[in-house]
């Protein structure tokens, strides 16, 4: 039997866009800014780490991270993120969104600082402690995914909910860009303060003892904006949907939202049982009947998206080196190579990554989630094939511009597409008491894809005849790009299962106003 939506939730759904919406975007968004900085800044400094800790004077080439170490350094934070998404997603539904929101930020700040203070000067000690702290850094980052998405979803009105959740996620783009800017500034400052010859002239002097400070500063710098938002996270009231629908305290929910909305909301005398509605749990028969297909859609599309997205993001530097956009390592000193890597990635972020996020913000509540995701996967498939088919031509000198343009467009449509929508949809379509958990499961499945991308692409893209030192033969970069195109196409097919949530209340989408015996209308397109 259908039930009426609570007055406090009706008030939130029809509330005009006002200051508290933007405040919530900034508070939640700065967490994502830090998340992106922390997860992706490591890709900027791995070549520098290889030079500092693994250069062998007897060899005629700069050092690089051994295959197992490179995989661990790039992938360990993703493993922590996966665990954090599952744990904090579940905890957010058990203890409340706000109750654990501050803890994830503290964990991120402390572990980010500790990563930069990794112990010792020997490779084994530094890499071991770096991986340890980055795992727990990822654990905190993982908690931010379900909590930030759920909080913003439950605070927003139904007309502009997609815009505000997308704006929170779009801060990831600024975090990636900020990482490249910090790297450019720090590496430039040290290059000018401590000039060094190229590797081929003097291998030892090309690194310089100061380089060890550079990567540590870069890794730690992202904690500053996140730490500044801690106070405001703690001042946010618990979301009305958690307080009313899960805790069963509609009086408190009404009081909190009256203050937030700065308007009087009529109070209802609703008992906890009425407020919380159904009691069926995750993976119960009733859950599978109502949301089983939804969970399959959100998990599969996020998984397939992250295989491609993280493969491209974490190994941009390797791709740029192989196409000749960055000069051979031995012609540069350590900090010049770092500077050039950061400059190349900044260009991709500025021209492709960041605009894609904000196109989603602008159009998510006009076009809708379903069509943006479908379009994004389609264009990613097309542009990846456009790179892979003429790959041998595009990597020749004089043709790099075409490669970079096509590569940048894949990032644009990843972010004006499934990278944004896979984050938004799980925060809208599941019932309040399982919303954070289901978002965490969806995000964790995505991170499983990211781990496969981070570990698999590095090995798969190795040359079939002459792999890099320490690696076995792979299928080659061109074939690896074909595999990513196929992954994007599968994402397109599974996107057909994703429901459209534009303009609907969370209770309508999650069927929380529908009794077990009622006919359940489909929410899809």
Describe the protein.
- The protein is mainly α.
- The protein has a single domain (14-272, 281-508), classed as MFS general substrate transporter like domains (Growth Hormone, Chain: A), CATH 1.20.1250.20.
- The protein has 22 helices and no strands.
- It has helices at 7-14, 19-54, 67-95, 97-116, 123-155, 161-193, 211-221, 223-228, 230-235, 240-246, 250-261, 272-276, 285-314, 316-322, 334-367, 369-388, 391-394, 400-415, 418-424, 432-460, 477-494, 506-510.
- It starts with 6 loop residues before the first helix and ends in a 15-residue tail after the last helix.
- Residues 270-276 and 517-525 have low confidence and may be disordered.
Compact description:
With 525 residues, this protein is mainly alpha-helical. The chain is built from 22 helices and no strands. Helix 3 packs antiparallel against helix 4 and helix 13 runs antiparallel to helix 21 (477-494).
The CATH topology is given as Growth Hormone, Chain: A
Q: What top-tier CATH class fits best?
A: Mainly Alpha
What kind of sheet is the major sheet? none
Average pLDDT, rounded to a whole number, is: 86
Helix content: over 70%
Keywords:
525 residues; mainly alpha; Growth Hormone, Chain: A; 22 helices; disordered C terminus
Secondary structure layout:
Layout lengths: L6 H8 L4 H36 L12 H29 L1 H20 L6 H33 L5 H33 L17 H11 L1 H6 L1 H6 L4 H7 L3 H12 L10 H5 L8 H30 L1 H7 L11 H34 L1 H20 L2 H4 L5 H16 L2 H7 L7 H29 L16 H18 L11 H5 L15
